[in-house]
Structures are given as structure tokens and as C-alpha cells.
Amino acid sequence: MMKRIIALVLTLIMFLLLTACGAKDQIALLEQQNLQLQNSIAQLQQSVQDVSGERDTLKEQLSVALSELEAAHEALDAAQTDVSNLEESVKLLEEEVYELKFPPLTVCGSIRLFGVDADVLTDGTLEYVPFDSFVANSGLALNEADYALRQWQEKNYISLDDAATMANVVLDETKDGIRFLAKVKDIQPMTENVNVPTLMYHAVSDDVWGISELFVKPAEMEKQLAWLMENGYDPIWFEDLSHLEDYDKPVMLTFDDGYDDNYTILFPLLQKYNVKATIFVIGHPNGTAHKVTEEQIKEMYDSGLVSIQSHTMTHGDLGIMDEKTLHYEFSNSCKEIGSMTGEMPYVLCYPSGRFSNLTLQVAKEYFVYGTKMNGLMFNTSKDDPYLISRYYIARETSLDSFATYCKGAGAQ
């Protein structure tokens, strides 16, 4: 029994000894790991110290960089200010150079720009008008690149010298000193062998204040216009004689002397029936008693229904005038009409139908066509374009007579 106890005690002691030896080994291992950890901590602490040092260095470098950047911004702002000042100086210098080369434009007068009043500007050497107004009022298709335009206050101007050299444009001055620019119609030859009834009227009014037979009744005038439209006639202007192939039954309505009822009574009827007509105005008495005013002439012309042509300057007897007087009559009449409408006339109506061979000779320098007081049917091949016959429409002309005059219109 004792032996067993001793054996158990010995076994226990051995176990304890073995356990103690394992614990020592474990402690030694733990001590070694602890030492390694302490070394690692020491390294980490050193790394932290190193990082802190680098951070401080970076902070200092960043601070220096920010200061340098701020200084650079200030320098850039200063440089931009210098550049702006320099650009402004250059701009002012360019303006001074431009003004030396191209002095500023100032208003120096006025002109009728194709029938519309406009200012004329000058640089001290040349005279100018606004290019856009020139194009709008003239109706001409012009390209800015084709002209040496002058710029001023963001607008383009064309010199009157350049305008005067254009084809089909006239720069002139009326007897009363009104300067104007006007178009010249490019009239082509007449279509051959066409009958064109040409009707001669004067006044249209129930208020008869002069020679009674000259005053067609408004009601009769309207009947005649309605009859033309209902029967397929084509009221035309003289310029349309060049393309009569476009019309089956052409007819021309002409009104002599430019009475004010041509505007107050006739013009509304022309608008109502959309009929073209030609009014021969006298240059000198426009706006006087019973005569149309410049404003009325311009309004009728602008309507696209009324052609304004010449009845001379004073309505004198062309048959007894000398050459100088004829030039006075034709030249000044053309200038008056060109100034008012913006278009030079190309048809002459001989006052009271009086003319001479000299009249016809001088008329050809100013006009393309001439009309007599009366006659028969006008034929484009048989008749002289300066001796166009007209049917006289009087106050008592019946609608049947009117219809007879118009019959036979068209190509022959």
C-alpha cells in the first residue's frame, strides 16, 4: 500500500517538474516576444518622431509655397492691370490715329435720298449718306464689299461721289437748291406691232371749277375702271411697253396737269380696282391751288399704282420755245420729279399738244417717250414713240364710246 502511495507521489512530482519546465519555456518565449514588441514600439515611436519632423518640414514648405503663390497672384494682378492699361492706351492711340486718318463725320446738310429726306455727313473732304438708307430707299441690290464704305459710330456710309458714279443713279439739284439722289429707269425697246389704247384724262371731280369738259365725273370714272377689269384689260405704264407679250389687252390711262382730285378722288378708285395709271405733273405749281402736293405725289408713287411723269416745268407752249428754254423746261421738270419720287421721269406730255421739230430733238435728250393731246390707236411699230396718240376722255364721254376706244387692244 505504502509503495503505491510513494509511486503516486513520485508520479505527481514528475508531472509537476515537467509542468514547471514547460512553464519556464513558455515564459522565456513570452519574454522574447515582449522584447520584440518593445523593439517594434521603439521603432514605431522613432517613426512617429520622424513623421512629425517631416510634417513640420512640410508645413514650413507649404507655408512658404502659399506665400509665394500669394505673391505670384499679386504680381499677376499687377501684370493684368498693366496689360489693361496698355490695351486702353493702345485703343486710345488707335482712335487718335483713326481720327487723324478718318476725321469724325458731322452733319453738313440734307438731301432727298430717293424721295426721302436724309442728313448728309462730311469728314471735311467727302460727303456721305447712310449706306443702309441708300439701299432701302433706292431698292437697288448692292453689296457692301463692292464699295469703299466709311464706318462711323457702328454704321456704314457711302460717299456721294461713289453714289453718283453708279449706273442708273443721278445726283443733282433742283432749281430751288434741293439736292437729291434718284434712280434712272432702264427702258428697253417696245414689243413690236401691238395696239395699246392710250386714254387722256385731266380732272376727276363733280366740283367743276374750270373748263367743264376736263372734269370726268367720279361715277363715270369708276364705271370705266370696272368695265376694263370686267372685260380683261391690262392697265399698264409706259415702261411696260417693252414686254407687251405679258398682256392680252394692254391699255394706258394718263392724267394731265396733276390736279389735286387725282389724289383725293382718282387714287382711291385706282386702289379699289388695282389699276395702274400715269399722271403728268407740272414742275413749278405743285402744291398750289387745285394741284397735288409733293407728299401726295410721293404717296401715289410709293403705292406701286401711279407712275409720275413730266408735263414740263411751267406748262408753256413748247412749239415756240428756243433750245435754251426747252432745256430749262425739261431739265428742271425732271429734277423736280426726281427729287419728289426718287425716280427720274422718262415720258413727256406736250402741254396742249404743242411741239416743234426742235421740241422733239431736245426731248430725246431727256425722255424715251412723248405723248400728244389726242389722236387714234397707238401701235408700237407704226407710231413714233415721241408722238404717241391718245384718246381724249371728256366729261361727256359715254361708256360705249370709251369701250370703242379700247377695242382692238393687243398684238396684231
Description of the structure:
Helix content is 44%, strand content 19%. It has 412 residues and is of the alpha/beta class. It has a 7-stranded mixed β-sheet with strand order 4-5-3-2-1-7-6, with helices on both faces. Strands 9, 12, 13, 14, 15 and 19 form a 6-stranded parallel β-sheet that branches. A 3-stranded antiparallel β-sheet has the order 18-8-20, with no helix packed on it. It is elongated and about 180 Å long. It starts with a helix and ends with a strand. The mean pLDDT is 90.
Secondary structure layout plus pairing:
Layout: H1 2-101, E1 106-113, E2 116-122, E3 127-130, H2 131-138, E4 150-152, E5 155-159, H3 160-164, E6 169-173, E7 179-183, E8 194-196, E9 198-201, E10 203-204, E11 215-216, H4 218-230, E12 234-235, E13 250-257, H5 261-273, E14 277-281, H6 294-302, E15 306-310, H7 323-341, E16 347-349, H8 357-363, E17 369-371, E18 378-379, E19 391-392, H9 399-406, E20 410-411
Parallel strand pairs: 1-7, 9-13, 9-19, 10-11, 12-13, 13-14, 14-15, 16-17
Antiparallel strand pairs: 1-2, 2-3, 3-5, 4-5, 6-7, 8-18, 8-20
Helix pairs in contact: 4-5, 7-8
Largest sheet: 7 strands, mixed
Order of helices and strands: HEEEHEEHEEEEEEHEEHEHEHEHEEEHE
What is the terminal separation in angstroms? Answer: 171 Å
What is the beta-strand fraction? Answer: 15-25%
Count the helices. How many? Answer: 9
Structural class: alpha/beta
What is the mean predicted local confidence, pLDDT?
90
